[in-house]
Amino acid sequence: MTKTAPKIGLVSLGCPKALVDSERIVTHLRAEGYEFSRDYAGADVVLVNTCGFLDSARQESLDAIGEALAENGKVIVTGCLGAEGDLVREHHPDVLAVTGPQQYEAVIDAVHRARPPAHDPYLDLVPPQGVKLTPRHYAYLKISEGCNHRCSFCIIPRMRGDLASRPAGEVLREAERLVKAGVKELLVISQDTSAYGVDLRHAESDWRGRPVRAHLTDLAAALGELGAWVRLHYVYPYPHVDQLMPLMAEGQVLPYLDIPFQHASPTVLKAMRRPADQEKVLARIAAWRAAVPDLTIRSTFIVGFPGETEADFAFLLDWLEEAQLDRVGCFKFEPVEGAAANDLPDPVPEAVKQERWDRFMATQQRISEARLARQVGRTIEVIVDEVDEDGIVARSRMDAPEIDGCVFLDRPASRGMPAIAPGDLVRAVIDEASEYDLYGTLADAGETRLRKPAAGRAVPRRRAQ
Ligand code: SF4
Predict the structure, then answer these.
(1) pLDDT at 239 (0 to 100)
(2) Helix crossing, 168-180 with 216-223: angle to 10°?
(3) pTM as predicted
(4) Of 2, 154, 236, 363, which is the most buried if we count CB atoms within 10 A?
(5) Which protein residue has the closest C-alpha to ligand 1 atom 5?
């Protein structure tokens, strides 16, 4: 007789790295026969994977735990905020267990204690690629945990420890399984992707019967053999990033670099405890673009860091004008409990932070709009994310999911057009651009694969400006 499978509710908060942790936990529990409930009421126990990076994220995590307790009552906490068990228990004494980030075994043990697994061979099946929480056609690939830097605004090294890289063979086998299961885009993530393998002294490991070094260049080249889009996130501009340019020029990895610059003023970078040679970085960017003209550079910045003067901020805006980055996110500095930056003098008043943020965003919007306008009239390859009767939402090589823009395409009027589904790679003619998004129509419809359109939510045809 088949026993009823225990059901888990999952609330996953935070960054893609936390999402990957959730996926590992889900994969493990699914392999043991657990099922997952979409609502609190249907769950035997609720797992909350928390974020503890910013104070606002910590509050969101505490609120999510409170909601899960109120709605279900049986709650296990994990993730970054889980590293601070006392804080969690102080706010929510009734949680069943609190475990920190990457403590997979402790989370699984806590779930076993709350609701033991029902052993049933039919429930123990798990897809070979694991269970992804992202849409089926793209997946995050975590290549390392932790970080060897000690940026003064960040507590990640304290919560996640020093850099710990996965052997190249292990990463490549996971990537291979994902691609075999239908993943078309691999999003390489870590805290510091350029430092990959430093802790392993770049040791070789076996993949497809040959040695591959645990080094970003070698890993990227090997990932490029899998035939999926390979997008690199959290890359720091170490010298060996130059070696990625030939791979991008030859199409082995996407011409896209996500580099968190955070600031440009040497004084602010020093206070942030980050490398401070932004002049050299400008020269590197120019050289990269000369080698790979279509290179997209994405970055994030913090304004209003303690001690940031108007001169520092003006330096940042000038640098931004010079760098002409394609995609940029900007945060107003927020103290994070336990971060060294909290002890720095000269905090920037909130009104000044806001004013600088507004000026920063206005500058970048203008740059971004001008750079995107260069795509108008071009025919580019895009990956389809959503389809409905109004149109198609896709992304170009310039757009990472969730954080960058979209390419909105009109649905073809012709009855003879093949059906398009999420994950298809199609060519699009771009006829319009805004600050963040592109608009156009399908090209070469005859070359696209025939598939049944997927049912999905309504597609916004034009994004609100
Ligand atoms: S590089 Fe700096 S900001 Fe990024 S995780 Fe490491 S310490 Fe934190």
Answers:
(1) 92
(2) 20
(3) 0.80
(4) 154
(5) 191
